[in-house]
Amino acid sequence: MMRHRWLTAVLAAVLWPAGSAQAHPVPFTYLDVRLQPASVDLTLVAHIIDVAHDLSIEPPERLLDEATLKNRSADVVRLLSTRMRLTADRSVLDLAEWETVVPLPERQSVRLEGRARVTSLPGVLALEARMFPYDPMHQTFVNFYEGDALNSQAILDAGRTRIEYFSGTPRGVLAVVRQFVPAGMRHILLGPDHLLFLLGLLLLGGSLHRLSLIVTAFTIAQTVTLSLAAFHIVSPPGRLIEPAISLSIVYVGLDNLMVRGGRDVRLWIAAVFGLFHGFGFAPVLRGM
């Protein structure tokens, strides 16, 4: 889904004639966030129609004139800088260092570059942005870099105005553990269906190697469908998944009561029903 939305934005920007600016074919803002050892650097590209609308400039093409843009540069900086907020490890960054706004005639846009000082590479960088609230369809495409490496992309819009980026530093890894491990534990405690299913599979015992294979099969299967659902590749409705998870627990219980020796198929049971359990956990992951 994310890839499709990015592709739509690129095609719109490339295929729409530049002279059709008034129709506003590209209601997008582009923001590059680059983490450096001593700073967080920002590059923002905004369409002239959006900027002109909020600054009451007519026609918008006046912003492509260097003299006009120079006179209104402070207004553009004030407008755009106040509509985003950056926090590094829960400390609000001071977005005070902004360079002169530059016109981009070929993109019908203006570019603004800024910098926030940090003492070290942050573990968690949180961005809040609602660049042009007047347009409910407006989207902000965000790229997160560490140095020259593009590590993450996100889209902010009216329904999603905040994104967190976890850096590859030890502080970033620790932040991931602090946020997602408790969330996973809460999910287990509030909905112990996964544990009940695994417990049912393990009640019949067996060698440590066999039991490890059963748990591994369940984990792999759950991870596959969890990933598919979390990225909106496959998203079956909850009205089908939740009964299937309950059925898996009932099935394992009946299998334990009725087993009379023979071939041990618990590995396959764990793999098949693990697929349903992964779909069940996906909504929790998407909500984090």
Describe this protein's structure.
The protein is an alpha+beta fold and 288 residues long. It has two domains: 171 residues, no CATH class; 96 residues, no CATH class. The chain contains nine helices and eleven strands. The strands form two sheets. Strands 1, 2, 5, 6, 7, 9 and 10 form a seven-stranded mixed beta sheet that branches. Helix 6 runs parallel beside helix 8 and helix 7 runs parallel beside helix 9. The radius of gyration is 25 Å and the shape is elongated.
Provide a compact summary of the structure.
The chain is α+β, with helices and mostly antiparallel strands and 288 residues long.
Instruction: Please count the beta strands (DSSP E, at least 2 residues each).
Output: 11
Distance between the termini: 18 Å
| Low-pLDDT regions | 1-23
Q: Major sheet, described briefly?
A: 7 strands, mixed
Shape type: elongated
> What Rg is obtained from the alpha carbons, in whole angstroms?
25 Å
Tally of separate domains:
2
Count helical runs. 9
Which class best fits the helix and strand makeup? alpha+beta
SSE string: HEEHHHEEEEEEEEEHHHHH
Mean pLDDT: 82
> Share of helix among residues?
40-55%
Provide the β-strand percentage band.
Answer: 15-25%
